[in-house]
Amino acid sequence: MTDESSAFTPPHPGAERARRDHTALFRITERHADTDERRRRHGNAYVPEPYEAVSLVLALAVGAAEPAPGEEPVDHADLVAALTLVPRVRADVDTLEAGLLSLARDRGMTWQEIAFGLGLGSAQAARQRFERVSGRTVPAAD
Questions:
Q1: Which among 56, 53, 50, 124 is positioned nearest to 94, based on CA atoms?
Q2: Residue 18: pLDDT above 90?
């Protein structure tokens, strides 16, 4: 494909989203997590957060992370433990997303801007997502 014809080819949505993800992560890292101290200020110094624990087990199990010398390989119980944490990770992400969506609206962002940030196709989809996520994060009545 020539450069001329690529100007008329729609961008690949997955590639565009990956580029935006990378840019977003780089921006937040550069502005708020550019030192070891700043990166560690949000986590627990003694126990990994649930997401970190699940990610670590997965990375070690599939070979994406190298085990430390003498570290035991991931076993059945480790996988069960990681699976046990998945609902907690999902709930944490829902709480984060609901908080960000509320903050965005409180700061005057339009549903269309929010939809763009989330990679959704419409303002209506963003509003529906907010309703779903907020509904999952409301504490149950006793």
A1: 50
A2: no
